[in-house]
Each structure stands twice: as structure tokens, then as C-alpha cells.
Amino acid sequence: MVAIGIDLGGTKIQGVATKGDEVVGEAKVATPTGGVEAVVEAIVTCVARLDAPASAPVGVGAAGVVDTETGTLLQAPNLAGFDGPVPFGPLLAEALDTRVTVDNDANVAVLAEHLMGAGRGANDLLGVWVGTGIGGGLILDGCLRRGPGGGAGEIGHMALVGTTRMCTCGMVGHLEAIAGRAAMEAEARRRHAAISAGTPTLMVELAGDKRMKSSVFAKALDAGDAVVSELLDEAVVALGTVIASAATLVDLDRVVVGGGLAEKLGPSFVGRIEQAVRSRLFVPTSPLRVLPASLGDLAGALGAARLSDL
Amino acid sequence: MVAIGIDLGGTKIQGVATKGDEVVGEAKVATPTGGVEAVVEAIVTCVARLDAPASAPVGVGAAGVVDTETGTLLQAPNLAGFDGPVPFGPLLAEALDTRVTVDNDANVAVLAEHLMGAGRGANDLLGVWVGTGIGGGLILDGCLRRGPGGGAGEIGHMALVGTTRMCTCGMVGHLEAIAGRAAMEAEARRRHAAISAGTPTLMVELAGDKRMKSSVFAKALDAGDAVVSELLDEAVVALGTVIASAATLVDLDRVVVGGGLAEKLGPSFVGRIEQAVRSRLFVPTSPLRVLPASLGDLAGALGAARLSDL
Fold first, then answer.
1. What is the pLDDT of residue A75?
2. pLDDT tens digits for A165-186?
3. CB within 8 A of A188, min separation 6: which ones?
């Protein structure tokens, strides 16, 4: 049976059509910034391009906190115009005239890594997605943990002390405010432009006025740029601290790290995070491994396609 | 049927005999510092004083990381002479000639608060015990979470950035190194005695050369002592940060805070922690409550007595 998976991110919508483990179609469209209706329309376009049977069930992984019972998006700071709860699943089901299941984008990505990627075989798995923001998903005893409010796994909003940087969610001192791509971009631009004590950085020179893509971070790092190096050092410490805390709280045997920035920076970045985690664990002999995610950009959509099986 | 519960802490061994929810016997002995054999002997003495049937099953909550399958104490930094894994359950079962079940002391305390205390009715509950060290226990979907290595819930060893204080476990920057009673005692003595820039504190004057009990913290705070006030402010921030992170990671509907220090400082201390948690949550409208534990000193032993039912 064909199932459709949609990964609804802050910048793009990735769709796949799958038949069991096989991918039989792929399509990608930009995420519109015109609000809920425009996003529903864009997903309808994306699904049409997949050329799947009209009755195929659709799973959506969306960037935000999801009430999976009702398909409501409770909070989605990275989607423009999604203020307050949005009954996204029902709206999309009506537009597509088929069964729609909605979950958090990081949850579906960790589901895919658990079923067919770097998390295969792990009974207790944390997925960490370092991209524009930082998402996370948690598998405990083989099952996706959602929690009573549907917000479990949101590792990007775990708290750190000793920082005053503002998070996209409006709170101060969350991981995402230190180690998310957008937060590091803002900090790099601030340091570059600071009057009297500015530190010119290749990051801003390469990106210009455009969005500072993950590839800019990788290029600036290769060129020995001091600012990117400092920002990533801080990000590694923050990620290591939070992942170690997560591993200590729930006890884990594996962590996979993916997302646009982690992919561009490659396995050495994930290796540095593993070292930072290990130096903070309560049980230093823990068999915990921190591995690069293996399904790349398609993880979210692949996991979303499995939602109708759950 | 009578069941026996033993709470094996760093300073005392608390025993209860129970019949369902009713307590039919209590006994308390000091924890010997002479190593494993002496502790087994002390528990045998404590059990004898409970005057229960010889065949009554015994549950033990022990301060440390426990392999609950085998009853092995893997790590117990607060018990003198317990270096490396100790087959504590089998040793005690032999000495008592009855069935013995061992779990972490914080786990059994949260089990008791969940079954009959301030955590009653909560499906997802974190227990935080602020005493000599900081213990924790986690109930997810109504069940005690142990995790693959048996170390789940060890919130005292969740990591913080921006601190260099050494934890009892040998790592740097864990919660217990900021907010545990023993860590705060050490820091108060350091500040009091610091050459040239020392800050005299009532805490040291009240405690003298003896262990700085929790009641000393409460008295110094009432008297307006600046050092205790600073140390507790730091502890509240650290506890708030870590509890908020835990709530964000797994999604919780209740947290109970107990332990010797929390009890002596009273509900206002727990109220301050709740405020600190709330200001760091990803979902500020979360129904999460942070409440004082309600079973006091007996929580551990009462929960241990329930282990044979699990």
C-alpha cells in the first residue's frame, strides 16, 4: 500500500510516497509565509506531484508542538502566521479528502532513524536535529514518547544557566538560542557589526544579506574564521550539556544527531558533541553512542509516511 | 500480608513494616561507614527490630545506581566502602533468608509519593529529593522509568554549563554540586574561611565542626545571613533550570520536591523552585505543578515496601 509522508519545515515542504521501505516518489516545495491556508495549499500541490493514489493516507511531520489526538498544531514558532492553536490535520484532511495524521517533525524524523537509519536496534533513542532551530524526538522502550501535552522531546528548549540569549519561543537561555543555526547567524551578524569592538567574520561576507546557510558555516570553519569557531565551540558545549542531561534523566543507549547544520559540518562535529556528552555523564562507562543520523534530508518525510502505521 | 521496606541512605537506615497502606512497625539505625558487610549487618538489626514475620519480603531503596534485575549496586558514591559493583540484594537475601528486591532510594521514594503522597493521580511525575545529595525518580505513563542501565531519574547529575564546581561523582558542573546540602556546606565553609576575602557566615558559626544540618540552613536564612541566601538563590536557579529541562524533554504534569533540606526550608522553598521552573518552560501555559512531597522521611521506606508488588 502506498503511504505519503510530508515534512513541513520552516523553509521547505518535503514529500515522499512510499511502499513499505521503498520510496516511489519525491517532491519538494518552498514553505509559504502567507499563513495557514497558503501552507495547506502548498501541501496539496506537493502531494499532487507525488502521483500517488488519491486514497493514500498522509502523515505530516510539522515544526511545532502537536496534539496528535486531534492533529492540532498548538505552537509553531518557525511557521509564519501559525499563531495560537491551528486545527491543521482536519484542515488538510478536508483539502486532500483522505486520512491525515500529524506529529512533530522531529518526532517523525527520529521515528525514521529508529526504523531504518542510525537508530536501528536501539531501544532507547534520542534524535537531535540541528538546523534553523533545534528539534528533538525521544524513543523510550521502543515507542515514541509524546507526553501528556504532546511536547516531549523538545530538546531545543531545554534550559541552560549562564546565558541571556533570547530563544525563538520567547524564553531566555534555551539550547536553541545558543546552538540553532538562526541564533548563531544572528549572533555572528551582531559581532560583525558591533560598533567600536566589531569582529569581522567571513560568515557575513559569504552570506551577504541572504540567509546564512549551513554551507556558509562549513566554509568559514574550513577557512579558519575565528567567530564561527567560537560560536560552534559554544554550541558543542551547550549540546553536550543538554544531551548528557537527557541521557542522565531517562537513561539512553543511543543518540543520533542530524539536521541541516550537522550534515554540512559532517561527522567530526557529531564526534565533538559525543566527547562533550561523555565528559558530563553520570556513568562515564555508559555504552551510550552519539552517531550522525543516516537518512539525511528525507528522514522527516520517511517517518511521516510511517505515522499511519502507528 | 506484611512487607518490609528499608531506605538505605548515606547517614541512616530507615525501616518500616507495612500491611497494605498501614504502617505496622518502624525502626531506624545509623548507616555504618565500615563497608558492605557492616551495612548488611545493620539492616539485619533494623529488620529484627520491626518484629515482622521472618518470611516477609524485603524491599530496599539504596542510595546509588542499581541493577534491579540482579539487585547489584553499580555505583553508590554516598555509601562508604561501596566501590565498584556490589551484589547487595543477594548478600542481604542470604543474611535475612527471605526474598529481597533492591532499587534506587529516590526511585522508591517517588513510587511512594505516586501511590500515596503528593504525586497521587499524576500519570507523569518527577520526584526530586534535595538532601545531602540530590536524588530523583521518574514515573512515565504510570510506571517507574529505570532505563537500560538502571540509572534513569538521576536528576542530581544532570549537567549545567557555567560552573566549575566538582560533583561527588567526580564530574564537573552537575546539579548536585550546586544544590546538594553537602556541596553547599563545603562552599559555605570555603567562603567563610577564605583568606583576605572571607565572608563570615552564621552557617559555620551554628554548625561548628559538625555536619551542617538542614536546620542550620533554615536558621541562618531566618536570621538574614547573606551567604546562605546567595547559596540558596543559586540552588533555586539550578534546580529550576534542570527541572524545567526535564519537563521539556519528557513532558510532565507534576513534580514533587522533598528531601531533608527541602523539608526544613518548607513550602516557600518549593514555591520558589516552581517559579524558577515556570520561567524556563517551553510551554509556559503548561499545567505542570511543582509541589512539596507529603510523606516526609518515610517516603523511601514506604516505597521500598511496595517493591515486592511490582
1. 83
2. 888 788 888 999 999 999 999 9
3. A201, A203, A204, A212, A227, A228, A231
Distance, CA of A12 to CA of A211 (rounded, Å):
14
B255 secondary structure, DSSP code: E
State how far the Cα of B240 lies from the Cα of B249, in Å rounded to an integer. 14
Identity of the residue in A145, A241, A281 whose CB atom sits nearest the CB atom of B250: A145
Helical segments of chain A, H only? 36-50, 88-96, 105-116, 176-179, 181-193, 202-207, 214-222, 226-250, 260-265, 267-278, 299-305
A273-279: Cβ within 8 A, 24+ apart: A273/A236, A273/A239, A273/A240, A273/A243, A275/A240, A276/A236, A276/A237, A276/A239, A276/A240, A276/A241, A276/A243, A276/A244, A277/A240, A277/A243, A277/A244, A277/A247, A278/A244, A279/A240, A279/B171
**R_g (Cα) of chain B, nearest Å:** 19
Contact B108, B68 (CB under 8 A): no
Across the interface, of A123, A150, A159, the residue whose CB is closest to B241 is A159
Look at B248 and A151 and tell me if their CB atoms are within 8 Å: yes
Asked if the Cβ–Cβ distance from B249 to A138 is below 8 Å, we say yes
Question: CB–CB of B244/A245 below 8 Å?
Answer: no
Tell me how long chain A is.
310
pLDDT number for residue B167: 86
Cα angle A249, A255, A258; round to 5: 130
Strand-pairing partners, residue B196, are: none
Q: What is the pLDDT of residue A189?
A: 96
Q: What's the whole-model pTM score?
A: 0.89
Angle made by CA atoms A298, A5, A106, in degrees to the nearest 5: 60
Residue ranges in chain B modelled with pLDDT below 70? none
Grid cell 518526532 is found at: A107
User: Rg of chain A's alpha carbons, rounded to an integer?
Assistant: 19
Closest residue, chain A, to B282 (C-alpha): A157
| Distance from C-alpha of B79 to C-alpha of B64, rounded to nearest angstrom | 8
Cα angle B291, B242, B236; round to 5: 65
Q: What is the pLDDT of residues B115-141, one digit of tens each?
A: 999 999 999 999 999 998 899 999 999
Q: How far apart are CA B57 and CA B3, in angstroms?
A: 5
Mutate to test the interface with A, among B78, B125, B161 (most CBs of A within 10 A): B161
Q: Are the CB atoms for A224 and A215 separated by under 8 Å? A: no
Question: Is A150 within 8 Å of A144 (Cβ atoms)?
Answer: no
Close Cβ partners of A115 (under 8 Å, ≥ 6 residues apart) = A303, A306
